[in-house]
């Protein structure tokens, strides 16, 4: 997916952070270990956001609003999640993730068949947890993930969360057709849950 993935990395990370902030604010059913893992994931994402913004600016020849980016950093450092979400919302509005090119409606029957096989043989090996897991970074069932978040966040997790093997140089091994297939398989549409 090369260029599409490169152009999507920063907008996808904004969506992931937005979802993670929401979970850190509102999900009371998370275990103490899950909360610790979520905190670490947010720390890591906030730490890499400046680098992703610079990459995005280079690739797209656009400018990222440094004021809102700095607000995200500052608010997170001060543990002011709601304030961080406000700054993220502005950044997301300025740099949206293009959901249309990965739309479920564009998936073919072959795409769906292939991702059913991928899901049954590869994804289900790790994605077995439900909220309340004793693990710090549980891999929740994909069907539960898709039901618990917007389709844009689900796509962002597919784009950013899937890692390959050393044969793929750890790059995301999913093709655009696979992404569309997963969006269709799990009923991810252009509406909020």
Question: What this model shows, in words?
Answer:
The protein has eight helices and no strands. 65% of the residues lie in helices and 0% in strands. The radius of gyration is 16 Å and the shape is globular. The chain folds into two domains: 2-94; 100-185, no CATH class. It has 193 residues and is mostly helical.
Strands, count: 0
Coarse shape = globular
Helix content: 55-70%
Q: What are the low-pLDDT stretches, counting only 5+ consecutive residues below 50?
A: none
User: What percent strand?
Assistant: under 5%
What order do the SSEs take from the amino end to the carboxyl end, as H and E? HHHHHHHH
Q: Profile the largest sheet.
A: none
What is the helix tally?
8
**Domains (count):** 2
Distance between the termini: 27 Å
Mean of all residue-level pLDDT scores: 83
Radius of gyration: 16 Å
Topology of this structure?
Elements: H1 2-26, H2 32-60, H3 66-77, H4 81-94, H5 109-126, H6 142-148, H7 151-161, H8 176-185
How would you briefly describe this protein structure?
With 193 residues, the chain is mainly α. It has helices spanning 2-26, 32-60, 66-77, 81-94, 109-126, 142-148, 151-161, 176-185. Helix 5 (109-126) crosses helix 8.
What key attributes describe this structure?
single chain; 193 residues; mainly alpha; 0% strand; globular
């Amino acid at each position: 997916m090369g260029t599409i993935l490169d152009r999507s990395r920063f907008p996808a990370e904004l969506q992931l952070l937005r979802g993670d902030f929401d979970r850190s604010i509102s999900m009371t059913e998370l275990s103490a270990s899950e909360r610790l893992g979520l905190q670490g994931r947010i720390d890591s994402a906030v730490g890499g956001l400046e680098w992703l913004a610079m990459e995005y600016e280079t690739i797209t020849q656009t400018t990222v609003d440094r004021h809102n980016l700095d607000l995200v950093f500052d608010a997170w450092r001060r543990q002011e999640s709601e304030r961080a979400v406000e700054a993220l919302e502005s950044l997301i509005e300025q740099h949206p993730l293009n959901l249309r090119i990965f739309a479920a409606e564009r998936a073919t029957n072959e795409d769906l068949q292939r991702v059913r096989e991928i899901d049954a043989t590869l994804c289900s090996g790790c994605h077995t947890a439900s909220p309340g897991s004793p693990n710090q970074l549980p891999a929740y069932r994909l069907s539960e993930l898709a039901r618990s978040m917007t389709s844009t966040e689900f796509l962002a997790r597919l784009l950013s969360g899937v890692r390959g093997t050393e044969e793929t140089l750890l790059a995301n091994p999913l093709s655009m057709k696979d992404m569309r297939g997963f969006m269709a398989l799990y009923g991810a549409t252009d509406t909020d849950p």
